[in-house]
Inverse folding.
């Protein structure tokens, strides 16, 4: 169980793309583009909280 | 005419930068450079030298950057940190962070910022919350830890608020501004004074961070006796995240090391048994992973970590640079000097209360004892604050330049 939960939020991730994808309608365009932009911005939230812990 | 002068100056600075980078990197690989590199970690000292208060360099990072650049331009140093007064309290105040004593707000403007650890019963993580941390470290930090350390952030289930929303918005934008500004600062250090940015990225040990920001030192002392399995599992849960953060901030050129700040995981804060059980098994794999990616780690061994030198000696050759604070630097050199570059060892009390003659004698003793084959970087023992005397920092610099040529 603990292993499964750990896998839900990996390093560098706040809201996994797989979780977000379930909320979206059927994607008609470039799915990879949507995933990449989601993850590129999502990691900023991760940086924020871990830098709060480590640096500030 | 002015333009051609600037081009010539730029070329000179670029050449100087290249020479310093080569000297610094060669030494960190535990080899012999042309001369001993000088890499002082100067924090509030820069304010004193440049004419600022502690409040100014702590709360206005542009002043801190300017002070660091002024020191870099005036002293013949090979590498510095772009802002060693690293905690920008403008950012922490925007977030609503509770644990800092901020110069000019909570403490006098000429006192360096302070970290205030809460009493054990008010620790930011409770003893029965280990499982939450272990299962989802990132979620725990957002949902439990952040609302406790911020005066503005609402906990899950509490009503949100204007202040809550602004904490995230202002905090996020301010952090991005600050981190982006380091890129410009590093370029200015390079172009204005040919100075290398000494480190890139941050690492703390899982065991240390639990004491520093979650359970507090006293809380962790209790936990290693009463719930040791939880402590170990929490350290293990933090490992991949701390590795990820360290690597994500590392130097893409793989020249300068990741800064690793060592706090209270050593004897006598904890026993050798605790070090062997918790601290080292959950740190060593992180260092090895980082090294397998081609990055060195600077062990900034604040205090005295000499009880653990044999453990550090297990790491791959050249994988770390070991900075000596209050440990016996000659013992450090004897045990790990054949594997790793060493830095530091000039006591801060000497830089604050000694004379230039005292400092020169100490530098000679350290250089004679540990720098004969290269692999040594001149620096104070600990981060230099505003009690460091300018004449003593000059003596450390000038003596090293005179005596430290191979």
């Amino acid at each position: 169980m603990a292993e499964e939960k750990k896998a839900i939020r990996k390093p560098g991730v706040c809201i996994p793309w797989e979780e977000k994808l379930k909320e979206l309608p059927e994607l008609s365009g470039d799915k990879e583009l949507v995933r990449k932009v989601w993850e590129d911005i999502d990691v900023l939230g991760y940086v924020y909280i871990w830098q709060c812990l480590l640096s500030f | 005419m002015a333009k051609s002068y600037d081009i010539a100056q730029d070329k000179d600075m670029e050449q100087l930068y290249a020479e310093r980078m080569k000297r610094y990197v060669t030494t960190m690989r535990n080899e012999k450079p042309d001369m001993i590199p000088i890499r002082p970690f100067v924090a509030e000292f820069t304010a004193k030298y440049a004419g600022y208060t502690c409040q100014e360099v702590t709360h206005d990072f542009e002043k801190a950057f300017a002070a660091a650049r002024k020191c870099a331009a005036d002293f013949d140093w090979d590498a510095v940190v772009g802002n060693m007064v690293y905690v920008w309290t403008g950012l922490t105040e925007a977030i609503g962070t509770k644990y800092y004593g901020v110069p000019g707000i909570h403490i006098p403007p000429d006192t360096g910022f302070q970290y205030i650890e809460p009493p054990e019963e008010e620790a930011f993580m409770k003893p029965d919350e280990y499982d939450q941390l272990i299962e989802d470290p990132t979620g725990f930090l957002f949902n439990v830890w952040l609302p406790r350390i911020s005066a503005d952030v609402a906990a899950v289930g509490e009503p949100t608020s204007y202040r809550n929303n602004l904490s995230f918005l202002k905090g996020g934008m301010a952090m991005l501004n600050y981190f982006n500004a380091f890129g410009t600062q590093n370029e200015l250090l390079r172009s204005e004074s040919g100075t290398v940015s000494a480190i890139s990225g941050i690492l703390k040990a899982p065991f240390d961070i639990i004491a520093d920001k979650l359970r507090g030192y006293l809380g962790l002392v209790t936990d290693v006796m009463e719930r040791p399995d939880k402590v170990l599992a929490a350290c293990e849960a933090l490992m991949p995240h701390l590795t990820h953060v360290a690597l994500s901030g590392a130097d893409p050129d793989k020249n300068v090391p990741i800064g690793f700040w060592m706090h209270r995981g050593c004897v006598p804060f904890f026993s050798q048994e605790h070090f062997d059980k918790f601290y080292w098994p959950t740190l060593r794999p992180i260092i090895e992973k980082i090294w397998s990616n081609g990055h060195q780690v600077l062990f900034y061994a604040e205090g005295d970590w000499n009880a653990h030198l044999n453990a550090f000696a297990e790491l791959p050759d050249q994988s770390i640079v070991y900075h000596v604070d209050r440990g016996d630097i000659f013992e450090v050199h004897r045990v790990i000097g054949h594997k790793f570059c060493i830095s530091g060892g000039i006591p801060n009390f000497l830089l604050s209360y000694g004379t230039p003659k005292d400092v020169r004698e100490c530098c000679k003793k350290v250089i004679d004892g540990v720098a004969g084959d290269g692999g040594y970087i001149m620096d104070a023992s600990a981060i230099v604050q505003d009690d460091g005397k300018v004449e003593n920092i000059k003596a450390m610099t000038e003596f090293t330049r005179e005596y430290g040529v191979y």
The interface with chain A takes residues 86-88, 91-92, 95, 97, 134-139, 141-142, 145-146, 149, 171-172, 175-176, 202-204, 209, 213, 237, 240-245, 248 of chain B (CB under 8 Å).
